[in-house]
Amino acid sequence: MAKSLKNIKWKHYLNYIVIAVVTILFAIMSMSNALTSSTIYLLEKIAIAVLLTVSLSVVVGFLGELSLGHAGFMCVGAYLGGKTACLLEASLGNGILSLLISLLVGGAVAALCGVIIGLPALRLKGDYLAIVTLAFGEIVRSLFLNSSDASFGGPLGLDTPRYDKNVLFIIAFVAVLICLAVIQNLIRSKHGRAITSIRDNEIAARATGINITKYKLTVFTIAAFFAGIAGVLYSYSNYTIQSAKFNYNYSIEILVMVVLGGMGSINGSIIAATLITVLDVELQTILTGETAVLQDLLYALILIVLVVYNNAPALKAFRERNSMKNFLRKITKAKHDPAHRADDEAKWDRVPTKIEMNEVLSTEFQPTMSTLEPDRKEDL
Amino acid sequence: MSEVILKTENLGISFGGLKAAQDVNIEIKKKQLYGLVGPNGAGKTTIFNMLTGVYRPTTGHFYLQGEDLTGKGQEEINHKGIARTFQNIRLFNNMTVIRNVLVGLHNQPEFKCSMVESMFRLPRHFQCEKAMRERAKEILRVVGLEEERNFLSCNLPYGKQRKLEIARALATNPKLLLLDEPAAGMNPQETADLMDIIIRIRDEFDMTILLIEHDMKFVSGLCDEVTVLNFGTVLAQGDTKTALNDPEVIKAYIGG
Description:
A: mainly alpha, two-stranded antiparallel ribbon, B: alpha/beta, Rossmann fold, 2 domains, six-stranded mixed sheet, 11 strands
């Protein structure tokens, strides 16, 4: 047993541990009534955003298909799960059992929609699929918007039962952990390799005998299932569902989180989802009244800064120089990484200065032995 | 007389009015190295595409060990035992070398592990992963890429990328391996190296190989038999030396 524990790669499980510890900490705080209701609401929002982002990142980051209808799946889950909860309230009451049943119903119906959307995904590529998914999201939203008052509340929205606020966010985080476990285990298996191979080169994947139909459908189904779960949690967290919430802006917001977290990185998605949700809520609380117009502006500005920080080559190099790893190495004086040795041993003082370069570039320049020799020595 | 692996009967395809290939009859026996040569645009890759299910032949049939595979899908043909490499390398660029091979091993029955087993990390998953890695390393050893197994495949030099593509095709445990210009872009040293590898693959895996190549030294050094194509039709066929020295073939290549 001890040996098998040693063999576990802890790095792979770090994200579960962090989320579990955070959940337990906040759970203890909520038991001792140390949390304000706004903090609890923020935690619920974070859990929902993480669920949405992680599930979308499988489609976009790992399967490599652009889906703009993720809010549509969430919408299906929210309405169906919310309706189930309303119906169950009479018979089962408003306990954990009815919550679980409505979570499953919301997830399952959303997954079914995932299959339906996955089918055209087998034929369509890139931009075309993006348009189809976008249309799907809008169709779902307007269906619920135009439903009768008795069924899904129509334009007024659907009122859903309330759940104990001190417990709901814990359930939401447990859902996040389950989602993470399922998706991460899937990605880190032979099936995950098959999925990423489709992203990298579909023609080669087909020729290698990968069943593309099966994997595309599976990915769309799993992603839709967890988006549905997120929808049900949203309906419980807000007491009421307005279909206007699930417009394409929201789908794009989820996509922004995925892209910002880095395509194909689950941990990145979690961090991006948390940061953006906190940022959004903080901006809404800080900028009120006159300055409320600045909310969107600042939000957009911060997004631009984050994207530039992530992708600009100069900043990348800066981060590399000042990274935690380098810092730790300096402190511990650890052995130098052999991969960098060649760079360090190269004679950087031999790089021509600007004056020398002008000389080199000028037409009158005649190569002499003294200018050529040092280079030749290095070659030998 | 050894067993016939691949047999094509009047195989042909036309795109609109263009007859890209017609009446191609090839018979390849087990453990044979068979060459498919011809000037550019002769229809060699088209034939590969028909044999792997990318195109559906408009006339004729082809049989793998007597089983008719005409018109089957790409995935199914791969499962039945025809694997290929591409003229322009198609690797999974963002994956390490070993992972490229592991994707090739995906459908092998001995590494069967359902999605549920992977999701819940049942013991089968770990056994299967371990066994797959062992097998992948073995295949990489044959093509001489064992040292580079943890490199990203896009960082490999060109010649090694070609070898990796062969390794990935080999991992699908085919009965017939189709190599589309395996020596293209290689220097003489690498080409000689590749000839060794191809012979080793044939001997170690009892593999039957059909290859397209423009390097005539490579073809005459490796292949027992060739088919020479020109404008989609068979120009000469049979023993490598005689077929390549056929006056018609020389005319097609140098003109005149």
